[in-house]
Amino acid sequence: MTSIKIHPSTQINSLKDYVDFIENQCIDYDVVLFRGQREDWSLKPKLARKNLRLQPSILEAEQDMLSYLKRKSIPHLKSIPENDWEWLSLAQHHGMATRLLDWTTNPLAALWFAINQPSDNHTDGVIWTFLLTDIEFIEDENLNNESPFTQAFTRIYQPKHITNRITSQHGWFSVHSYSNQESQFTPLEQDIRYQNKLRKLTIPTNKFQELRFHLDRCGINAYSIFADLDGLCKDAEWQFTTDTDES
Q: Are 177 and 143 a contacting pair, CB within 8 Å?
């Protein structure tokens, strides 16, 4: 996990800047994943940022949370996940901390996640692009023979569309491995397999407001991203009230 320098970041000031970057830098790759963040957080899953209540290790907490979800969630599900990969996908898209990190193949969805709220700390938003060729994906036929909890290295996973949100967000995941030596989940930007496949774009916080309106005109808003009643209510609120960075 020796760190090497990431490709210098590119500043995005408009929707045109963003589209130009995609057309110029992403065209030659088999799959391009995008991740939007309101701040320049490390590319590590939510589970890596949680503090423990009772369990002696984060790995035990992970297993206990998933077991708890499996016991309690059945009345709320239209269909039952077939394996732990699908259970983790379900948990991730409903807000539970997992070893999964969200990505999307929709660049406009990633931009929306970066700028849909005012910046709490007045810091630039970030979009990571993940440029993939000849990479070992987790194929559906292998899932029953592998466990997400024993992966020797971080894998890239395209989940089945088991929730509306995975469908509407064109969701993919990085499934992060755990280093016993360093007692942590491996941040993607520190993983030597993937560092040179990452590019970082920064978005000045004073551009968030303008970009929200441009994305809405392109049909990208909370309702299209979440495709459910929560998203509709969030979109209705935005359509008829102003955020703190809007005039």
A: no
Write the pLDDT tens digit of every residue in 62-100: 999 999 999 999 999 989 999 999 999 999 989 999 999
Burial of 70 by CB count in 10 Å (0-12 exposed, 13-18 middle, 19+ buried)?
middle
| Helix segments in the chain, DSSP class H | 15-25, 58-72, 84-93, 107-115, 164-168, 208-217, 222-226, 229-240
Q: How many domains does the chain have?
A: 1
Q: Report the relative pairing of strands 184-185 and 155-157 from DSSP bridges.
A: unpaired
Asked if residue 247 belongs to a domain, the reply is no
Consecutive H or E run containing 173: strand 171-175
Per the structure, the complete domain to which residue 42 belongs is given by 10-47+55-240
Say whether pTM exceeds 0.90.
yes
**Are 221 and 112 within 8 A, CB to CB?**
yes
Q: Up-side HSE of residue 220: CA atoms within 13 Å toward CB?
A: 20
Alpha carbon distance 229, 244 (integer Å): 24
The verdict on residue 4 lying in a domain is: no
Report the C-alpha gap between 88 and 58 in whole angstroms.
15
- Helix, strand, coil content of the chain in percent (nearest 5): 40, 15, 45
